[in-house]
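# nightly structure sweep
# worker-07 picked up a monomer target from the shared queue
# config: single-sequence mode, recycle default, output format = structure tokens
# input follows
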Amino acid sequence: MLRASRVKPVVAVALAALVVGTSSAGCSLFSSPPEPGDAARALAGGLSTGNLGAVEFANTTPAKATAFVAKAYKGLGTLRPQVSLSKLSHNEGSDHATATLSTRWDVSASPTDWTYETKVDMALVDDRWKVRWSPDVVAPDLAPDESLSITRKWPRRADIVDSAGGKIMTEREVAVVGIDKTKVSGAQATASARTLAELLGIDAGRFAAKVGAAGAKAFVQGLTERATDPLLTKNGPAIQKIKGALTVPTMQVLGPSRTWAAPILGSVGEATAEQVAKSKGTLEAGDMVGVSGLQYRYDAQLRGTPGLAVLAVKRGADGSVLDKRELFAELSKEGEPLRLSLDQKAQSAAEAALAGQTARPTALVAVRVSTGEVLAAAVGPGAAGAPLALAGKEAPGSTFKIASSLALVRKGATAATKLPCTDTLTVDGRQFGNYTGYPQDKLGDIPMQTALAFSCNTAFISQHAKVSQDDLAQAAQSLGMGEKLDLPFTGFLGSVPATDNEVEHAASFIGQGRVEASPLTMALVVASVMKGQTVRPVLVEGAPALPPPAKPLDPAEAEVLRQEMSAVVKEGSGKVLAPLGVQYAKTGTAEFGTKNPPDTHTWMVAGRGDIAIAAYNEVGDNGVTGSAPFIVSFLKAYNPG
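# output follows
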């Protein structure tokens, strides 16, 4: 009895303890195992951030899983996925479950994303759901020795073409010549660099130092040149004999030649740090972009939109790529060709006409009268690549007398109106005279037509009190000169600034003072006269049309100007062009600088058929000898029929 009475309290206490314990846990003796959903969602959240510290694993640690994800994501920069639990498969009472995760990567600005699903095994261990880790939890079929990487794929850059679709600026074969340091090292590398530099005509000391400082596996570029360049074709065998010298063929966007319309077309090169920063993620270091000219202005149109590929990359211990495979690709979008009005035959003729002008800047522009299309815009080698043809700002000299004539016509003058042509004329203390050698038999009261044909300065300046500066500016605008328009290319349409200075106003009549023009400007002036209405320039086809001037040129006014400019060819300073069928012309000189006597810019403008031409020479004696030869050469080579 004593033993039995002692057992009962012990059993009661144990049962009581069990009841209290289960009550405090909020469970019952018959509660179900936990659901696997929370563990799956924790995994999805961890993959989204790259931190799997909150995930329990059955076969690894959170730290190791996080380290693998960090390595896998490294090639993607700051890009992270959106991962969510889309499906959960679990039979009640089973200690296994399968979670399906949906992953979305916003890899580009396009509406297309990289999406995929992965299946994750989970196991119930010690009454807790744990993830069975595998690399393909991150991406389908991802191996333990692989990581993710994105590479962009730019399309082939679109061409710049002529009006007929002929390629002007396109990919052409070039050769990159340099020293391959995997084949030569030490003193031999620098010696080879010096020898190669001498053949290529580059700075030997600088190139040798560059080669010496480069890494042991570097290819050090010395020169990139067209594959057909005589420098390479002539020295090819000698280059091959230099130890470590290597010539690598590749493609590069180039014009027909080094100089052909180069200031207009521009060039293509690697994006600068500034361009990359301004692109807001569109560009990366190493991307090829337009760096000048039309290539720069229309870069977005020409380069297109890059595609991309997400890769699974296997690397060696030194970081080198051993293998890679594509997981996702987004196609690139090709750029649109830029179509120009340039006529390749006309441009080549203009380039040839100026080819020998190495001592000073020269330019020639040809415009189609009926349309305003720029057929040619060339600069000579002395211009050093400056955009002088379309954007030069120089005093137009007596070619501006075409505008002065129009201003006088609007005051009632005709080609026969007499103007006083004197040896000299003084305005507010400043003496003006005619050019040296002006024919004495053309002095006196002469018709305005004669004054233009023989370019009498004093005859036009004598009208300075009758014609205001505003009158001159408006006449110039009617001829396509002097307005600030939003041109779709780098260009200058001239300037006739307002002034209260009487001397400056007088000088404006003969295209000096502060009057400025480009060869394009003066070609448009001639074209407007020939057409009988204001001609606007067209270079980039498809660009918005430029607005007409406030007071367009009237056909009756233009007829007077044509009569005058015809007299220049028949009896005046333009007779040299008559044998080539030129119908209209005007010469011009403009003094500049501090020499005594000062140097002069020289001009010649001309019109034949449907073509208006302006030629400029920075320094010359007169338009006949300084600029007319360029037009002669051009017209002999270019005859559109």
